[in-house]
Amino acid sequence: MTIVRYNPFLPGKAFHGLVDEFFGRDLNEWFNQNNGFKPAVNVKETDKAFQLELAAPGYQKENFEIGLDESRLTIKASKEDQNKEVNQDYRRREFYASTFERSFHLPENVDAEHIIATYENGILVVEIPKKEEVKPEKRTIAIG
């Protein structure tokens, strides 16, 4: 089975081709914010933590902003094309500013005070430790 993005504005593939040829880019780029870019995310769970691995090549760690509002973790990134050539003879340019935002609802059993993040080789890794489980204390009750 294949998942196909539905766009009610477009009647068929033939129309896609005409628009792409006329405008020089995919019509979905006009309708989707951020050019439709949402980085892929892997979510791992171990006994001690959750780990998010977000694929975002081409960014620097300074481009990321990670925020926590109650139980919602939000990852934002923004970068601009810094190529400022004087030559204006381009027929088509695909360098552009790129932004994205991903949000995750965290479960109640996470330790929000100790979340850490690292960015290396195009992968942002966010480590979200779990809280220690409070085990009920065993005791003997005297019969009176």
Structure, described:
There is one protein chain. The radius of gyration is 23 Å and the shape is rod-shaped. By secondary structure, the chain is mainly β. It contains two helices and seven strands. Strand 6 and strand 7 form a beta hairpin. The strands form two sheets. A four-stranded antiparallel β-sheet has the order 1-2-7-6, with no helix packed on it. The protein has a three-stranded antiparallel β-sheet with strand order 3-4-5, with no helix packed on it. It has helices at residues 13-23, 28-31; strands at 41-45, 49-55, 64-69, 72-79, 98-105, 116-120, 123-129. Residues 25-34 have low confidence and may be disordered.
Question: What's this, in brief?
Answer:
The protein has helices at 13-23, 28-31, and strands spanning 41-45, 49-55, 64-69, 72-79, 98-105, 116-120, 123-129. It has 144 residues and is mainly beta.
